[in-house]
Amino acid sequence: MQSKEVAKNKKAFFDYEILESLEAGISLLGSEVKAARANKVNLKDSFVRIIKAEAFLFNAHFSALEHTNLHFRPDQRRIRKLLLHKKQITKLLGSVSTQGLSIVPLSLYFNHKNKLKVQIALVRGKKLYDKRESLKKKQQLKDAQSAMKEALYK
After folding, report:
1. Contact yes or no for 65/23 (Cβ under 8 A)
2. What's the gap between Cα 17 and its chain centre?
């Protein structure tokens, strides 16, 4: 399956332990889709809330393009509706309310049908020692790769 990634929430992978992820559609305006095609999207500090059995994406920043009409320019951080099935929403709502979990977007991409999708995940916050452990693992992996590359070119 071929897809073009537009934005990735790297901070979510560092701050949270990802339990379950799923794909959702997103309701956007035309200029926002054009901004996504130009990779002018930022998912840092964004999150998903379920309000009245509907999922909404908060704090996602879609930059306005220079050639967009000034009178029809939408708010860059407006609340955007996510398109999910009712069963998926109730499952997410149950997990969030009973287990104290959160829902965050991981990435924004165009799928093989050229539709903009957002990958959201059910997450649990990491403790400080977990973050240190993940940094340590990342550094060890980086050192091992550089050692292998160095041995290959000798």
Report:
1. no
2. 14
Q: Tens of pLDDT along 117-143?
A: 999 999 988 777 777 888 888 889 999
Whole-number Å distance between alpha carbons of 60 and 77 = 6
DSSP string, 59-98: S-EEPPPTTS-GGGPPPTT--EEEE--HHHHHHHHHHHHH
pLDDT band at residue 1 under the 50/70/90 scheme: very low
**Distance of CA 120 to CAs 25, 53, 66, 92, 125, Å?**
10, 16, 29, 11, 15
Residue 90 CB partners (closer than 8 Å, separation 6+): 53
* Number of residues that this document lists for the chain: 154
Contacts of 107 (CB under 8 A, 6+ apart): 5, 6, 7, 8, 9, 43, 118, 119
pLDDT band at 69 (very low <50, low <70, confident <90, very high): low
Per-residue pLDDT reduced to its tens digit, 72-93: 777 788 899 999 999 999 999 9
Kindly state the tokens that stand for 39.
Answer: 């990779």
- Could you tell me the two tokens for 36? 């996504």
Name the DSSP class of 119: E
